[in-house]
TrEMBL record:
Residues 1-27 form the signal peptide. Keywords: Signal. This is Secreted protein.
């Protein structure tokens, strides 16, 4: 048996009585649930490298000129290229992998969960905004505090 509990513009709720138990089920509304979320890849640092995702969709690359920023005198600054964001179905577990170029190292990679060192991390996509962050540094201590 279904009973309508909605009144004067409030959201309609249907109740089903099953063997003495009552289950509340939201009625249809004009709001549409998001079925996809966007994963954004942010790359920081003074080095060069690429961040990719599995399943595919992101292939984001940061290139810094040699000696940037201290020895860099002229020409283009850092260049960010490729696909640095992608849409995935909500609930998809995406593995994000960071690979530094030769002469560089990965200083950090974070997918928004507990930090675990390494060159890959996982992010479960939720509706809306999802981020992964990485930092590449050139060999030679340019990113170190010392």
């Amino acid at each position: 048996m279904n009973i309508d509990f909605g009144r004067r513009g409030t959201r309609l709720v249907a109740a089903a009585l099953l063997g003495g138990a009552m289950t509340l089920v939201p009625a249809a509304s004009s709001a549409v649930a998001q079925t996809t979320g966007t994963l954004y890849v942010w790359i920081d640092g003074w080095g060069s490298g690429t961040v990719t995702s599995n399943p595919g969709g992101t292939n984001c690359r940061l290139v810094s000129p040699p000696g940037f920023p201290y020895e860099h005198k002229s020409g283009p600054d850092q260049v960010l290229s490729g696909s640095c964001h992608a849409n995935f179905p909500v609930g998809t577990v995406v593995t994000v992998t960071a690979a530094p170029d030769a002469g560089n190292y990965l200083n950090g990679l974070d997918c928004g969960g507990p930090f675990t060192p390494g060159s890959s991390c996982q992010r479960t996509v939720t509706s809306g905004y999802n981020a992964a962050w990485s930092m590449f540094c050139p060999d030679g201590g340019l990113c170190s505090a010392g």
